[in-house]
Structure formats: C-alpha cells, structure tokens
Design a protein that fits this description.
Layout lengths: L13 E7 L3 H10 L10 E10 L5 E6 L2 E11 L2 E11 L2 E2 H12 L11 E2 L1 H10 L3 E15 L2 E10 L2 E10 L2 H11 L9 H8 L10
Antiparallel strand pairs: 1-5, 1-10, 2-3, 2-8, 3-4, 4-5, 6-7, 8-9, 9-10
C-alpha cells in the first residue's frame, strides 16, 4: 500500500464526505486521532465558483483562480465515492473546448450560441446565468486538515452563496482505511454527501435536507 501524502497527487482516491449544521464531536475526535500534518494544511481558505446543472449529477465543475476543473464520478464502493479528473482548463477558454468538453459535461439539452473563438471567465459565467438549467454558485471554504489511519481528512466551514454549512471528510486510495476512520470518528450511518449534492440541496435545486 502506497502512503498518502497531503497535497500530493496519488492514484484515484475514494471519498467520504458529509454536510450539515454541526459535526462538533466528530471533528474533535478527528483532531485528537490525527497524526501531525504539514503546516500548509492546518488551515486553508479559498473562494470558488461551482457550476451546477439540473440535468447532471455525475460531473463536478468548479472554477478557482481563473482555472476550471471538472471531475467525473467513477464508481461507489461500500458507499465511498471515487471521482477522476475529466478536464482542466484556463480562461480565456476556446469555443471548441466549451462545445466539446465543458457543456457536454453539464448534460444540458441546449447549447448557447458560440460565435467567438474564445471566452473570458465573465463571458462564460454570463452564458451560465442565461441558461435555464445551469447556475453559478459562489462557495467560500475554510478548511482544517488532519490525517487519521493514513487517510486525508478535513473539517470545514463552507458558505454556499453566503449560507453557512459544515463539512467533514476522509479520503484514501484504500477503502478499508476509510471504513476504519469513519467508524472511529463517529460518522457511521451519516449520509455521504458530495459537494455537488450539497450545493444543489442548499440552493433548492434538489428537494432534500443535509445530514443534520
């Protein structure tokens, strides 16, 4: 088994994540069970834009620092989700990439008219806002990193269009290590909710509550 290192690329990981109002006791246990982690992941802040689609639950698209990252759902093993990179792009982005890679990932029925060779971030967001099945959502993250049983863990405050929710997660290439971590932290039976699902629930695109 290869050892996972925070911030380094490894083979595709499986992930447990949940969202709700409070994971206070689980976060406390996560912190106490954690081995020391690099200072760079003690606390991390970011502001990202997620593009959510009414017609898609398998491709997760986010934009940070002018760069687009799309991940696609691969499989679920014992309730843990595996996601792989689908595409990475940078703005300005070509019409060809938008037509052949980005909008197909949203699985929308109609494509916007693309009459330019490339588009800036603002122009792309404007197209998203004009589309009836798409929505751009601002997501602010404040995350604290840990490592338990060789799995990369975090707890965090997440603001979805300003609405605060709390998240907790563990990810690893090894499903058995994830099972052990979820049990020891006290998250057994708590619904696994990915970012795409959480955002759509908060903005009302999916009529379902979070974990608590």
């Amino acid at each position: 088994m290869s050892e996972l290192k925070i911030g380094e690329i490894s083979k595709p990981r499986f992930e447990y994540r949940s969202f709700g109002r409070c994971f206070c006791e689980q976060t406390k246990r996560m912190a106490r069970l954690s081995v020391p982690v690099p200072e760079k992941v003690w606390e991390r802040k970011s502001v990202e834009t997620y593009i959510v689609s009414r017609t898609n639950d398998v491709n997760n698209t986010k934009i940070r620092d002018g760069k687009m990252d799309i991940k696609t759902f691969v499989q679920s093993v014992d309730g843990f989700e595996q996601w792989n990179p689908l595409m990475k792009g940078e703005f300005p982005i070509s019409a060809e990439v938008l037509e052949k890679e980005v909008f197909p990932a949203f699985k929308v029925r109609t494509l916007p008219k693309l009459d330019k060779e490339s588009y800036t971030l603002d122009e792309f967001i404007a197209m998203v806002k004009d589309h009836p099945d798409l929505q751009a959502v601002t997501v602010e993250k404040l995350r604290w990193g840990y490592m338990v049983n060789g799995t990369i863990c975090e707890a965090g405050d997440v603001y979805i269009n300003g609405a605060k929710v709390v998240t907790i997660n563990s990810e690893s290439t090894e499903v058995e290590d994830l099972k052990k971590t979820v049990k020891e932290i006290g998250l057994e039976g708590v619904e696994n909710i990915n970012y795409l699902q959480a955002i759509k629930r908060v903005i009302g695109m999916i009529d379902k509550p979070l974990a608590n």
